[in-house]
């Protein structure tokens, strides 16, 4: 009777060093086609997001969702109006279910769904408890808003700090990569809260002059430094994890994937406004020729960085942002001109880049990154491998 080795077993063998990534990829290709050739190797070289463990994982995920939702509605019937207890029990239920699905069977997609169930239910329970302790009413005047400083800051610290602690504990127990992105988001919000509290204290003590109405555009531009700094910190952490796990055999590379997804919007939006001078928040997004050139330079820079660190997870949100921005401009533009709008060209470039990189990412990476970076830098980045080796 033939012995069948599952994909999870092969991935585990790579993680434990029993076989190499190249050997695993050759086995994948042999299983799919019965042979191994250059085309199979090229296909194996594409980035693989380990989000789903196969058909059984998808099957169990559906059961997990149905079971958790059913448990929620049972609690709604047994504990009507007890939202705090319902949310807390759903969090406990999600944790208990993860002990089987994640700890014992290592099902990737099911584990991701359960971790999100836990985070959502825990934050709801924590938010309800904090709101009960710090009842915050809608302010009717600026003076009432200023008087809420102590309550808002204390509630914010407890909520965000508690969320980060719970996410860290869950990750320590179950090692679910998406929680790295959740933790980064909570840490970013905490940094925003701390910055707002420091500015408030500075204004109330007289150390910082209160802004005038004519200073608001400059103030909003200065506020962009906060998400930019947070984005750089998250991006730097993701790159550090990529460097630590260059072969992408461990969970840290999957955590880096989600950190890149989180960092991309925080980097792209501030850099776009700073480079082009366009005020997206206030609705003025009609870049002139110079802004269009700066936008093109930004796209090229992000493309090169994504190629260097071998992360399409950084590039996809970037191109999606620029593409959606261009679509917004074209739809809302009332100009009646026979010329081609600059952003139409940007859309063409973005679309062409997505298709081109999707068809030959590894080949483009070898052509562009290898000749332009010194060996000392290349040795620290995810390796540029031959087409026969698959990037995890």
From TrEMBL:
The membrane-spanning stretches of this chain are 58-78, 84-101, 113-134, 154-172, 179-203, 223-244, 256-277, 289-307, 314-331, 343-361
Write down the superkingdom of origin. Bacteria
Keywords tagged on the record? Membrane, Transmembrane, Transmembrane helix
What is the official name of this protein in its record? DUF2157 domain-containing protein
Write down the species.
Mesorhizobium retamae
